[in-house]
Amino acid sequence: SENANEAMNKKYREIISTLPKLDPPHPTYEIYQYNGFWFHSSILEATLSLSDNFKAQPSDIYLCSSPKTGTTWLKALAFSIMTRDRFSDDDSTNPLLNQVPHNCVPTLEVDFYANPSFLDTELPVLATHVPYACLPPSILESDCKIIYICREPKDTFVSWWHYDKKQQQTFGIETGTTVEQDLKSFHNGTSMYGPYWDHVLEYLKESVDRPERVFFLTYEDLKSDTLCYVKKLAEFMGKPFTEEEVNQGAVEKIVARCNIKTLSNLEVNKSGYFDLKQWKINNSSFFRKGEVGDWKNLLTKDMAKSIDQITQEKFHPVGLKF
Ligand code: A3P
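# adenosine-3'-5'-diphosphate complex -> structure
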């Protein structure tokens, strides 16, 4: 009931109010630290509520990522892999033609409050940015599959920086922060769902311990051999391509459908927007360049060095190189 919900939300807000708060505060958002990670307050409220209330099904597949690491692309690919026998041969009825990929695969902690009915999808594919240890226990305790995508840290930061600036301009919430200041937050780990490196390492560890449960992939690998990784993804998701499908070009078709140029040229992704309760997001802001190494156009050598140093410390010992 409405009252029970209100009481629940009050409970989570009370828990949140006892947590470390970002200091000095973010200019527009309330940011709190939970389980070692930094969350936007309303995202954290949803995360806590999901922990208590969300029931994962054993057949579910979760697409997990930090923001700006290729989530939109992975959603489009996973959706296409799972639904490939549902649409007409020429693909003209494919929902990806008139819906942003984020509508085809909902994000747990974002859609939970904004549009709870989104979670009643027929397709057992859902997404989340929540760190591994903060996933709802029903996901952690079940055998459902997880696909994690990560990206070179400098490119991830730069992608986020452009996205955030665009959001700020569109919705008149300019923070006036410089690249240096924002990079410092990323570096210190106080960016959304940060520290970025720890987010990656938690999922990487799980994928090493239980490769049948967690498939770990990088944006760079996916870019360099999309066909090969789409086949691997399909196998992992339990929907391998048959020899006949491969011969008929089914994999190529999916790769083409999910190409950044194809998707970003669709009307829905040019002019549509995503209406969440707390904020709006233009669909176009999910598609920018989609290139590897674009950090060179924003960061100085010294800035790059400061990020590379952490990457070396945190990623090299576990064999993760970009
Ligand atoms: P850039 O800002 O570097 O261009 P997310 O989907 O996690 O928010 O990540 C967004 C990044 O993925 C952006 O990177 C965006 O351009 C890129 N991207 C979006 N759709 C893509 C696609 N279909 N193929 C490749 N990259 C894509």
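# post-check
The longest helix spans residues 153-170.
The pocket of adenosine-3'-5'-diphosphate is lined by residues 65, 67-73, 76, 155, 159, 162, 258-260, 263, 286-290, 294 (CB under 6 Å).
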